[in-house]
TrEMBL record:
This is Membrane protein, putative. InterPro entries: Yip1_dom. It is found in: Membrane. Residues 14-177 form the Yip1 domain. Pfam families: Yip1. The chain crosses the membrane at residues 35-59, 71-92, 104-125, 131-155, 167-193. It is a multi-pass membrane protein. GO terms for cellular component: membrane. Keywords: Membrane, Transmembrane, Transmembrane helix.
């Protein structure tokens, strides 16, 4: 994918998500293509996450402790992306949607690709305007939820974005609570992220 096509598809994702979703699922129509794209965005995401952490420490002077293990970060990001694709397909179908996991997987990979581009912009802004760069984290979280809402509606043919967004929020925060409780129950802690 060229940069021009990437930017065009990013724009289309916001102005016409249904058409963007159709293009993404055509581009990633084969399982091998989806898994290859999945590996690429996860590897890039782990590297960018580590870079952002280093930049934040250098610019703000705040010591975040030992750097997180990129391998564990990649494993966690990969697991979360797969779960997100499952949730998009499964919960959507519970409310009358017809989307399948393969399509949801392709769309979640694309959402991650969009967020990678946004994080690159954030890293550049952080170098010039540190405070704005840090505040962009909240904005990017909102963009993530909005993209999931748009593509969930496009995948399942939902017309009411408000109800779709409410469902996304319920599933998102409900899943976060369950995953957090599961990690605590198994004795996992953030300290493990710093182990290589």
């Amino acid at each position: 994918m060229t940069l021009a096509l990437y930017l065009q598809l990013v724009r289309l994702s916001f102005v016409d998500p249904a058409t963007a979703a159709a293009r993404v699922t055509r581009l990633l129509d084969r399982p091998s293509a989806r898994w290859l794209a999945f590996g690429a965005v996860i590897a890039a995401g782990a590297a960018l996450g580590l870079l952002s952490e280093i930049l934040f420490s250098l610019i703000t002077g705040i010591d975040l402790g030992p750097a997180a293990s990129p391998f564990l970060m990649a494993a966690i990001q990969g697991g979360l992306l797969l779960y997100s694709a499952f949730a998009m397909a499964f919960f959507g179908r519970q409310f009358g949607g017809q989307g399948r996991f393969g399509e949801a997987f392709a769309l979640m990979v694309w959402i991650q690709a969009i967020m990678l581009g946004a994080q690159l912009v954030q890293a550049a802004v952080m170098l010039l305007f540190p405070i704005i760069g840090v505040l962009m984290t909240l904005a990017l979280f909102g963009v993530l939820l909005w993209l999931i809402t748009l593509f969930t509606a496009a995948l399942h043919g939902f017309e009411n974005l408000m109800l779709t967004g409410a469902g996304v929020l319920v599933v998102f925060f409900g899943s976060a609570m369950l995953i957090g409780s599961g990690l605590l129950a198994t004795g996992l802690s953030p300290a493990l992220l710093t182990e290589s």
